[in-house]
Amino acid sequence: MANSAHNIPIFVVDDEPAIRETLEGVLSDEGYVVSSFPDASSFFKTLETQKPSLVLLDIWLPGTDGMAVLGQLRRIHPEIPVIMMSGHAGIESAVNAIKMGAADFLEKPLHLDVLVDKFAELLHHSKRLKEPAVAEARPVEPLNHDEIKIGAAELVASGRYQCTLRDNVVLNGTGLLTGRKTGIIVSPLGPNSGIVFQDLDGTVIPGHITALESLAPGTVSRAFSANSTVLVHNSHIRTVEHLMASLSMAGITNALVKADYEIPNIDGSAIDFCRLIKEAGIVEQSVKGYDVVIRERIQVGIENPDEKYLYIEPYDGFVITMRVKYAAPIFEQEFTFDAAADSFEKEIAPARTFNTFENIDMAQKLGKVGSGYLNSHIIIHDGKVINTTLRFPDEFVRHKILDLIGDLFLVGYPIRGRVVANMTSHGYNQALAQKIHLALQV
Fold this sequence. Notes:
Layout: E1 9-13, H1 17-29, E2 33-37, H2 40-47, E3 54-58, H3 66-76, E4 82-86, H4 91-99, E5 104-107, H5 112-124, E6 153-165, E7 169-174, E8 181-188, E9 195-198, E10 204-206, E11 231-232, E12 236-237, H6 241-250, E13 255-259, H7 271-280, E14 282-294, E15 298-300, E16 309-313, E17 318-326, E18 331-338, H8 344-347, E19 354-356, H9 357-365, H10 372-375, E20 378-381, E21 384-385, H11 395-408, E22 415-422, H12 426-441
Parallel strand pairs: 1-2, 1-3, 3-4, 4-5, 9-13, 14-22, 17-22, 19-20
Antiparallel strand pairs: 6-14, 7-8, 8-13, 9-10, 11-12, 15-16, 16-22, 17-18, 20-21
């Protein structure tokens, strides 16, 4: 590390002497040339004659505060990456800093190993796009669809009342793709509203299959994103699948989700979203709801144990049977989840996202994902899990069910049917949701 950082100038702006001294020592040991400043005035004076490769900037400074410094720095040197830091700023400050152009936002006390890795990442990828692409282990695959059967799905009065949250709730975390601090505010919404997302600029994005980023309206034959579920309508909301699954299984039919670009991923599972919904409470509304009832089998892919496929068939309830078969340490796993008999919160929600170290490392080197990928995955290397202890021996197949539940809720209503899935990705899940949606239109 020291060799790669040799002679790279770093500016640290913080009014706490102890922090400046610590950062000077650690970063100098890594080979950086560090200059530190107690206030904005001394920082800008030096900036007239010296230009750093990166700035580490405290949000609270005497005189001109860090946000004002960030704004001025963006105007005169927009190419210099800036990492904001604070010991007592909330998610709103973090979001505002990112929107103003900060590369990242770190909370004090700083984790120095994380900071050093972040420096290396930003300096190496300082020219990458603001919106990183989805990392993919292999090219996106085209999906061929059978003709939609008339009457294969029907919207039927459920007899149950629609539900929303009792109170507003907030959840903070890290974005999976960006690796930056983000958060959501989930609020009650009136009957017949559905799940609605809203970005910080007020742009509304329906939590519905028609807003799916990779969906071409009116078509059923195209390529789908394989790694996360992204909604778009004049703006983007990314990685919505785990939250959607939790809302679905809690029976929430109407809710407003305010978010900044990406839903926080936390540990790669849905357990924190379940806790959030419990904290808010659930209230029945005065209007009864609807279910999508499957009348005939709807299928994506060719039924072959060595290929991806899934189908949904008539069933009085909601059941998913998922099978996966991958290399060590996963091997072959199969699990059935019955929404009426099993606990989503205990059996499915805790299951985390997984990927290989090689896939994650390559995606980061290409600048396609942020550090959130490393901190919120079960990471597999050389046939072993290398960063955590599994919560279930078959955690991998359970997580596949979690993703599928979230993707199917994009249909907009609870579903009555039995799903059988084999090694499916988000692309196949989304394709099935699309086919169900189109079956409702005929």
